[in-house]
Write a structure and sequence with these properties.
Elements (H helix, E strand, L loop, with lengths): L13 E4 L4 E3 L7 E6 L6 H12 L1 H6 L2 E7 L3 H11 L4 E4 L4 H5 L3 E4 L5 E4 L1 E6 L5 E7 L8 H11 L1
Parallel strand pairs: 3-4, 4-5
Antiparallel strand pairs: 1-2, 1-5, 3-8, 6-7, 8-9
Length: about 160
């Protein structure tokens, strides 16, 4: 499998959002995009991660950064999760695991013998669609380095 490299074009995708609408990476052309892959809705570390972004949304808005959360959960579960956490950004269902594979962040086997679960990962894609940051975590209990993400976003503007 081809590993993604900083400075390369980010893999494009079309996924179904929690609002049950198609969302393409190309929809955000001209804006910075922060992709946050996470294993499962309604779990402790995932909730902490997404609430961290929610609680600092003003920074991301000022940085012209679109936040997109991606997991293998269904659009229905993601919609309920988004409502419960009052998240001001879209959650996208990678139910078929194509995007997690394209971004090299899919556990072959996760906890409880579950297969094909997104790893916790953060990617920053600039307005031209180029990959500028990637962090793929093997330990699902860890959080991405948001300081590094935020520093990069400051430098992109």
């Amino acid at each position: 499998m081809h590993s993604l490299r900083i400075g390369e074009k980010a893999p494009g995708f079309t996924l179904i959002s929690n609002e049950k609408k198609e969302v393409r990476l190309s929809d955000f052309s001209g804006n910075n995009v922060v992709l946050l892959f996470f294993p499962f809705a309604f779990t402790g570390t995932c909730t902490k991660e997404l609430c961290e972004i929610r609680d600092h949304m003003q920074f991301y808005t000022q940085s012209k950064a679109q936040i997109l959360g991606i997991s293998v959960d269904s659009p229905y579960a993601l919609n309920k999760y988004r409502e419960e956490l009052n998240l001001p950004f879209l959650l996208l269902s990678d139910f078929n695991k194509h995007v997690s594979k394209a971004y090299d962040c899919l556990y072959e086997e996760f906890a409880f013998g579950l297969k094909g679960v997104s790893k916790r990962a953060a990617f920053v894609i600039d307005g031209e669609g180029m990959l500028r940051y990637q962090e793929i975590l093997e330990n699902a209990g860890s959080l991405p380095n948001f300081d590094a993400v935020n520093k990069l976003l400051n430098n992109l503007n």
